[in-house]
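Quick one, tokens below:
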């Protein structure tokens, strides 16, 4: 049996809203499940107005609630933006909401444009 997966960057089409893009992502995940895909990954992007993937843990949870069998995961949580412990805790909780259906991919790519990776000194 062939294992097939989708990596969705959740693009926002011309004249569409963030809500429209999220609805399209849900529709695609449901179609992937119907067509017996194995996994559905969402990508994390920052400071790119054409995509909605700024919070993979929230989008993954939403997709898990809108599907029944397909595994859902992050196509790469960019750890430089977060505490690794917090990421693990979030995905541990998510995996208890949908046991056996959650995948956590991590990365350390720059994560987009300079503003997305700039470190701010908050005093």
């Amino acid at each position: 049996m062939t294992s097939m997966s989708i990596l969705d960057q959740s693009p926002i089409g011309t004249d569409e809203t963030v809500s429209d893009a999220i609805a399209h992502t849900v529709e695609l995940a449901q179609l992937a499940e119907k067509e017996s895909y194995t996994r559905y990954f969402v990508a994390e992007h920052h400071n790119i107005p054409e995509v909605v993937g700024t919070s993979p843990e929230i989008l993954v949870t939403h997709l898990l609630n809108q599907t029944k069998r397909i595994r859902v995961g992050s196509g790469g949580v960019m750890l430089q933006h977060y505490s690794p412990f917090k990421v693990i805790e979030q995905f541990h909780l998510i995996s208890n909401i949908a046991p056996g259906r959650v995948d956590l991919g991590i990365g350390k790519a720059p994560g987009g444009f300079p503003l997305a990776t700039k470190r701010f000194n908050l005093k």
